[in-house]
Amino acid sequence: xxxxxxxxxxxxxxxxxxxxxxxxxxxxxxxxxxxxxxxxxxxxxxxxxxxxxxxxxxxxxxxxxxxxxxxxxxxxxxxxxxxxx
Length: 85
Hints:
Layout (H helix, E strand, L loop, with lengths): L2 E2 L2 E2 L4 E6 L6 E8 L10 E9 L2 H7 L4 E2 L19
Parallel strand pairs: 3-6
Antiparallel strand pairs: 1-2, 3-4, 4-5
């Protein structure tokens, strides 16, 4: 179970993606940042774990979508005042 600013994250989907640095597979949970975040409402991609095989990953996350590529999250802080950087 993962939390962000003290609130439980509810993931709407999971993906199994290849790891860039090894022959393993990484599971990510996908959600949206809560209102308490600077990134409120934007996509959240959270690392859940790394596995030796797709089958091993699917044992823990049976509803995960298996992908042959890495997903990207392109969040923006353009909505913040310039002096917040």
